[in-house]
Specification:
Elements (H helix, E strand, L loop, with lengths): L1 H12 L7 H12 L3 H4 L2 E2 L2 E2 L11 E3 L4 E3 L16 H10 L33
């Protein structure tokens, strides 16, 4: 419990709290939340940031599910560009896509339901 409270306090006290919501969201997506680890393809040299967040190439093959990281770019044809802000916020805390299907449990949606983020954006990630 102390670790969770420490992380929450660190996020609240981080220098990024004084930034705009867009800067805060970029900071969280690109570092703290490590979205690239699952949602960016990998090449021989590691993450292929030229295709950042376009869908991961690694496969998570577990007894309960087999998935790859989805394309979470704003592309309307292949990404999440057709999702409304409300749908994206709901997804981040519930794990339910706009069509009602549940995301695989490897997506850490429960993290977005703990303080200091309860009822928030989560801070800038949807902006």
């Amino acid at each position: 419990m102390r670790i969770v409270l420490g992380i929450a306090l660190a996020l609240l006290m981080s220098p990024a709290t004084g930034e705009t919501l867009i800067e805060r969201g970029a900071y969280l997506v690109n570092s703290v939340m490590v979205c690239h680890n699952c949602h960016t393809p990998r090449g021989p040299q590691g993450l292929d940031l030229s295709r950042a967040l376009a869908g991961g190439s690694q496969v998570f093959d577990e007894p309960a599910f087999k998935v790859t990281g989805s394309n979470i770019t704003p592309d309307k044809d292949t990404g999440i560009g057709n999702w409304s802000d409300a749908e994206l916020k709901r997804f981040l805390v519930s794990g339910n896509r706009p069509n009602g299907t549940k995301v695989a449990p490897i997506m850490p949606t429960a993290f977005y339901t703990v303080p200091p983020w309860v009822g928030q954006n989560p801070p800038g990630m949807v902006t």
